Amino acid sequence: MSRNPGATSLHALEAGAAATPARLSIDSLGQAGSRDALSRLNAAVDELKALAVQPMLQRAVEALRVDDHRTADTWAIKALERDERNGFGWYLLAIARERAGDFASSVQAYESALKLLPDHAEVANDLGRLAFRMGMRTQAEKLFRHFLARRPDNTDGANNLACALRDQGRYDEAIAVLKPAVEAQPEAPMLWNTMGTVLGEKGDFPTAQIFFQEALRLDPAFPKARYNLGNSLLALGDAEGALEACDIALAAVTAEDERQMMRLARSTILMALGRIGEGWDDYEARLHPQFAEVTRFLVERPLWEPGCDLAGKSLLVVGEQGLGDEILFANTLPDVLERLGPEGRMVLAVEHRLAPLFRRAYPQIEVVPHKTYVMQNRPARFALPTDELAKIDLWAPMASLLREFRRTVDAFPARTEQLKADPARVASWRDKLEALPGRKVGLLWKSAISKNARHRYFSPFGAWAPVLAQPGVTFVNLQYGDCSTELEFVKREMGVEIFQPEGVDLKQDLDEVAALCCACDLVVGFSNATFNIAAACGVPSWLISTPGAWPRLGLSDRYAWYPQARLFLPPEFGAWEPVMAQMAEALGAWAPEER
């Protein structure tokens, strides 16, 4: 992984942030150069008999039909060497490069083909699919609309456009595109599968299952529908059924990016079943170069592997994914330090907002901020300049360390403090909160991350009513983002005033947020970055989880990551009323009787 962050690329380099690979459903967008597209392409190429390049193009088409992308690439290049203005040559090269996983040069080839073949709609559809795979949803939407306008009765057109709309959170529009397509072609399993993914993103997993099952009735060998059915089963708490479906799907899939997506999903299913070591092994799929959401680590040093001798070595550990993930995955740091020994050295690269918390907790570690860029529409993480990297013996993405140090639930330590807030700021906040009546409970109810339909795993704010009604408590707002609507609602409808801390940016100033959490008697809510900060600082924490949540590691009575945390589980997905009633009862027993 050698690209320097200052290097040029197909897309402009810009500051960015790598997100948790959370959306694990697979879309039926077809393969580059579908059977129908290759048939049309073959017919078009056949009409070029007068051209010298025609035999070369024909051989490229024949190679693609048997999934031989290397041979197809060779013949397409030969054709373009003869005639660089041949649009079909560029199109065939684009398909071959995409199938090889070389998305950057594939995009360039598709763009050249589209300019030379403006009336060949399949080029727009294939370029749209590639843009979609690379996370370029708005560009994909435009290309799919271009294709659908020219091929209005084409199943792929409606299906692909619906996928692009769904991934922009425009669920009703996606359904409006799919509904007439399903009515016109009810025998098309792809459309039923995509409708299921839309409903799953909305959080309606029971109905999504019906659509996945219909797709499988129409085509029992449809691996993507089988895989998506497995994901819905996991969300509803059936991890055994999810694993069975995922394994069947994996056995039938050949595209490497889809295999790695399924492998990553399988890792979370295994962990939900308590098969933690196997789960961490499969979790390495997130690092595979053809995983659609892979983050490239710009580190040219030997990669740590389980079993490596660390004694006396210099080790770079790089945080990954979201803020909450960096905090969770740091669970292994004391074990790693012990392995390094007194002569060893650790450099830890984390999100800059977390750096002060890690420095206080681990004064023996050199903590530096990592930086994330977008290169060729993929996140790339930079940790150390070249001269500093030269001093490093080994490096590891932070989550990979779990493969050796946390293979069982029993390997998680009973250590309550994993981060350390500023003691002076904690004392300052305690003084401020002391003036408020009752016990102080920090409150979290949503995630600020809108992508990957994370709203599915958070209750509506109104469901908190029985908890907020408990006497003897002053709730402290710890929720980042715009909360004015919810705070006004609870004050107007329930007469409960949630304390809004002044002078602190709850999203950016995480060192101050940690101090505020530590000044509270308890923090309650769903798992987001702030909950993980509070729990890692040792604050008593009550977590509302969901039936298929893999971080529970198959446990329902405790949370292995934070031994002082208490779990609250709904009886089924989306059943918020009983779990809120349970938390309200527990809070009533914990808090004093009067405010």
Note the gap between the termini: 58 Å
Low-confidence stretches: 1-23
Structural class: alpha/beta
Mean pLDDT: 88
Rounded to an integer in angstroms, the radius of gyration calculated over CA atoms is: 26 Å
Identify the strand order in the major beta sheet: 10-9-11-12-13
In this structure, how is the largest beta sheet organized? 5 strands, parallel
Question: Roughly what fraction of the amino acids lie in strands?
Answer: 5-15%
Number of strands: 13
What this model shows, in words?
There is one protein chain. The chain has 595 residues and is an alpha/beta fold. The chain is built from 26 helices and 13 strands. The chain has helices at 35-46, 54-65, 69-82, 87-99, 103-116, 121-133, 137-150, 155-166, 171-184, 189-202, 205-218, 223-235, 239-252, 256-272, 276-283, 323-329, 333-340, 355-361, 386-389, 402-405, 423-434, 465-468, 484-494, 510-519, 529-536, 576-590; strands spanning 14-15, 296-297, 314-318, 345-350, 366-369, 371-375, 378-382, 394-397, 439-444, 473-477, 522-525, 541-544, 565-568. It has a five-stranded parallel beta sheet. A four-stranded mixed beta sheet has the order 1-6-7-2, with no helix packed on it. α6 (121-133) packs antiparallel against α7, α9 (171-184) packs antiparallel against α10 and α14 (256-272) runs antiparallel to α15 (276-283). It is globular. The protein starts with 13 loop residues before the first strand and ends in a 5-residue tail after the last helix. 48% of the residues are buried.
